[in-house]
């Protein structure tokens, strides 16, 4: 009897589930975030599915941004790709030129969803849009680099303020060293921070043609700018013991070195703000915008993180569903949900203002997290600080990293290393331009 | 001897078809595709390609870092093969001697073969990590001496040991099987003539093992060229400064991470050619010394 009842219930459930899913327009979403952040993405899908009964998001984690792009390309070539892809900036030059995407501005207009595009921060809008101002992809999880400093160790060295110039940083490192701190600066090479964002903040080019925005025939320039002097300084600090190389391959990451109280300063994305809070370091700490050299007029930094791309070749129902999900993510409560569960920043001015008015950034653990906004909006983006639009950028980054590592290990001088990285990077750029002959970034 | 003749029957192609189909789908077709891509510039998202002739090969072969990658791949292949086969042979000889507890060892030694390469890399991460691994004890004695992120030779040593450890099991199984197929009467006769275990190994067992030895040499060298990806990826990531950027790892990072499908295809063709050439050399020159009984 009970068994019969159970079967009947199951059948009834299956029937209702069947009709429910038949009514709902489904779309697939592949995302790259993993771990805690991956769980946040999955939760946004659940929240979306629970918030309405017309659409259903089917969200699949792909174990990292790079894998998400690789898997999507493989699926795309087989005609089995998702409607929505979360992709990081360095992986999208190919996608932009292939034209196999549905610009979100157009998608929203076609599906009748209203989004106030002017509400997005210009630093973010410029990064993800075409020359004509049309958004390619939907900004979502956005960050920018900052540095984290150990207030207790700084106090020991008689310092109360976190400097915003590199000259001030060097003086602070020296004071820390004199006060008995063995590792003032936990350094890990990062092309995103040391090259790209450094060049933005100083208003110097990474590549010609406005960092690639104005043509595929651009060439790398970072071996001719202030970047060289900066990297030489880092090498000198490492040699003088003012900094220590802290990478996972060398035994301990820079973040762990900071959290354990060994090193006084480390650079990372603002997204780490939440993680460090969770790790509860046994000292007072804070964040500061990345420093610039004296005599340079500071410019804005640009966003990192990822954006959501709508791919071509799907049905109208899938596009409607995806548009609804993207609009859902852009609402204030959903941006706030992401902020509360990660270290990311708001992407629209209205949400940021509303959060500030509510006192969101006045209470722990969010205090001072909006320093990232200060960095992003320091100036209006200039032609050199819109961002970087270069093909084969993943390879250029890895050329930079390998060469810098070789220079730090004393195999060559920093200038030689950067010259090699530029020469090899230019080969990649030429090859990329040849692959997409006759095309240009939209 | 009379040769047997069979009449042509449709059964033969029918029975062969499934296997041929599998080989075609998973080997010939992708290889042909790679060959085609190697002569073009392929756009990753589809949308066409341009014919560039030998350009991809010229570019790869004129890159000094590529030759560095070939050099380290050859070192890795030779070192892992020698190390793995040497260890496997030693272990097999002892297990064959039925020393105390040999049944346990036999099973224990076969196990590592079942471990996936990335897992091997991860396990050796706990051994070689300069900050937290077993080798970090060296650093407590002389600080900074062991650092995989700084010294290329240490990184190469680490991947060779991890790679050899994974290969030992496979060679061990074959060596043991070969040793056990040597007729008892031969060893017993030698023993009666007064040959001690070491002498019997050198003069009797090893010469009889040459066919197995040759087979394992070919397999091990091929494997260490093509199957090292997981270990490099988890243990060193190709670093420090490309010191462990093996050919197969470079194919992955250029092709899949960097989306340069054509450059990676050209490298695959070169790697395939290299492995084929090495196998040919082994058959041509080493097999002559092999005596099949």
Describe the protein:
The complex is a heterodimer of chains A (442) and B (293). By secondary structure, chain A is an alpha/beta fold. Chain A folds into 2 domains: 7-143 and 304-358, 3-Layer(aba) Sandwich (D-Maltodextrin-Binding Protein, domain 2), CATH 3.40.190; 145-301 and 370-435, D-Maltodextrin-Binding Protein, domain 2 (3-Layer(aba) Sandwich), CATH 3.40.190. Chain A is 48% helix and 13% strand. Chain A has 19 helices and 10 strands. Chain A has helices spanning 2-23, 35-51, 65-77, 93-98, 104-111, 122-127, 151-156, 166-178, 191-202, 208-211, 226-240, 254-259, 272-279, 316-330, 332-340, 349-357, 371-376, 393-408, 414-435; strands at residues 25-31, 55-61, 84-88, 138-143, 145-150, 183-187, 243-245, 263-269, 285-289, 304-310. In chain A, strands 2-1-3-10-4 form a 5-stranded mixed β-sheet. The radius of gyration of chain A is 24 Å and the shape is globular. Residues 5-21 of chain A have low confidence and may be disordered. Chain B has 293 residues and is mostly helical. Chain B has one domain (34-42, 51-289): MetI-like fold. Chain B is 71% helix and 2% strand. Chain B has a two-stranded antiparallel ribbon. Chain B starts with 10 loop residues before the first helix and ends in a 7-residue tail after the last helix. The model of chain B has no long low-confidence stretch (mean pLDDT 85). Chain A: Pfam families: SBP_bac_8. Chain A: The complex is composed of two ATP-binding proteins (UgpC), two transmembrane proteins (UgpA and UgpE) and a solute-binding protein (UgpB). Chain A: It is found in: Periplasm. Chain A: It comes from Rhodobacter calidifons.
Catalogue the unreliable spans of chain B: none
Give the domain tally of chain A.
2
Assigned CATH class of the largest domain in chain A: Alpha Beta
Tell the overall outline of chain A: globular
The CATH topology of the largest domain in chain A? D-Maltodextrin-Binding Protein, domain 2
Indicate the multimeric state: heterodimer
Residue share in helix of chain A: 40-55%
The overall number of domains of chain B is 1
Largest sheet geometry of chain B:
2 strands, antiparallel
Report the structural category of chain B: mainly alpha
């Amino acid at each position: 009897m009970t068994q019969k009842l159970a079967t009947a219930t199951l059948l009834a459930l299956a029937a209702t589930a069947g009709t429910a899913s038949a009514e709902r327009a489904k779309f697939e979403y592949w995302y790259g975030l993993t771990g805690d952040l991956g769980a946040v993405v999955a939760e946004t899908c659940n929240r979306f599915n629970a918030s309405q009964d017309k659409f259903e998001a089917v969200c699949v984690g792909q174990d990292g941004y790079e894998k998400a792009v690789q898997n999507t390309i493989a699926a795309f070539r087989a005609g089995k790709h998702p409607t929505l892809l979360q992709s990081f900036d360095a992986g999208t030059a190919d996608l932009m030129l292939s034209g196999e995407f549905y610009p979100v501005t157009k998608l929203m207009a076609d599906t009748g969803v209203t989004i106030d595009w002017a509400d997005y921060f210009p630093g973010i809008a410029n990064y993800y849009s075409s020359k004509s101002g049309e958004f390619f992809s939907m900004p979502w999880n956005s960050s920018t680099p900052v540095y984290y400093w150990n207030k207790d160790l700084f106090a020991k060295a008689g310092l109360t303020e976190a400097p915003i110039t590199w000259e001030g940083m060097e003086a602070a490192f020296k004071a820390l060293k004199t006060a008995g701190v063995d590792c003032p600066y936990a350094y890990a090479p990062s092309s995103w921070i040391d090259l790209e964002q450094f060049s933005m903040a100083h208003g110097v080019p990474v590549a010609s043609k406005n960092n690639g925005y104005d043509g595929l025939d651009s060439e790398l320039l970072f071996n001719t700018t202030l970047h060289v002097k900066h990297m030489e300084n880092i090498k000198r600090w490492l040699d003088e013991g003012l900094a220590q190389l802290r990478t996972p391959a060398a035994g301990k990451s820079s973040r762990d070195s900071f959290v354990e109280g060994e090193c006084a300063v480390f650079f990372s994305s603002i997204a780490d703000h939440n993680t460090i809070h969770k790790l509860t370091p046994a000292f007072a700490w804070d964040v500061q915008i990345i420093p610039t050299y004296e005599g340079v007029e500071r410019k804005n930094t640009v966003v990192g993180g990822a954006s959501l791309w709508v791919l071509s070749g799907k049905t109208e129902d899938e596009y409607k569903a995806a548009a609804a999900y993207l609009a859902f993510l852009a609402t204030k409560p959903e941006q706030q949900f992401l902020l509360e569960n990660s270290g990311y920043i708001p992407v629209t001015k209205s949400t940021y203002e509303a959060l500030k008015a509510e006192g969101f950034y006045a209470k722990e653990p969010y205090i001072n997290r909006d320093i990232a906004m200060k960095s992003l909006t320091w100036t209006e983006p200039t032609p050199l600080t819109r961002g970087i639009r270069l093909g084969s950028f993943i390879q250029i980054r890895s050329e930079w990293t390998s060469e810098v590592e070789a220079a730090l290990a004393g195999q060559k001088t920093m200038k030689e290393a950067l010259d090699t990285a530029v020469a090899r990077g230019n080969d990649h750029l030429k090859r990329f331009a040849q692959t997409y002959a006759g095309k240009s970034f939209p | 001897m009379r040769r047997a003749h069979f009449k042509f029957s449709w059964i033969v192609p029918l029975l062969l078809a499934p296997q041929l189909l599998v080989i075609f789908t998973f080997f010939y077709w992708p290889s042909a595709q790679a060959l085609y891509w190697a002569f073009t510039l392929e756009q990753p998202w589809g949308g066409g390609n341009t014919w560039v002739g030998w350009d991809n090969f010229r570019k790869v072969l004129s890159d000094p870092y590529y030759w560095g990658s070939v050099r380290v791949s050859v070192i890795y292949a030779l070192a892992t093969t020698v190390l793995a086969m040497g260890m496997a042979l030693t272990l097999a000889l002892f297990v064959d001697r039925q020393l105390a507890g040999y049944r346990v060892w036999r099973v224990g030694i076969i196990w590592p073969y079942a471990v996936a390469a990335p897992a091997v890399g991860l396990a050796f991460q706990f051994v070689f990590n300069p900050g937290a691994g077993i080798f970090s004890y060296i650093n407590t004695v002389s600080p900074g001496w062991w650092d995989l992120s700084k010294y290329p030779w240490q990184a190469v040593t680490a991947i060779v040991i991890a790679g050899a450890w994974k290969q030992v099991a496979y060679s061990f199984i074959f060596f043991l099987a070969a040793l056990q197929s040597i007729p008892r009467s031969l060893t017993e006769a030698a023993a009666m003539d007064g040959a001690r275990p070491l002498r019997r190994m050198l003069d009797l067992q090893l010469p009889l093992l040459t066919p197995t030895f040759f087979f394992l040499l070919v397999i091990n060298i091929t494997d260490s060229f093509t199957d090292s990806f997981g270990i490099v990826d988890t243990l060193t990531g190709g670093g420090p400064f490309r010191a462990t950027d093996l050919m197969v790892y470079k194919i992955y990072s250029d092709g899949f991470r960097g989306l340069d499908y054509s450059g990676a295809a050209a490298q695959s063709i070169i790697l395939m050619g290299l492995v084929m050439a090495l196998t040919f050399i082994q058959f041509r020159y080493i097999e002559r010394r092999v005596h099949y009984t």
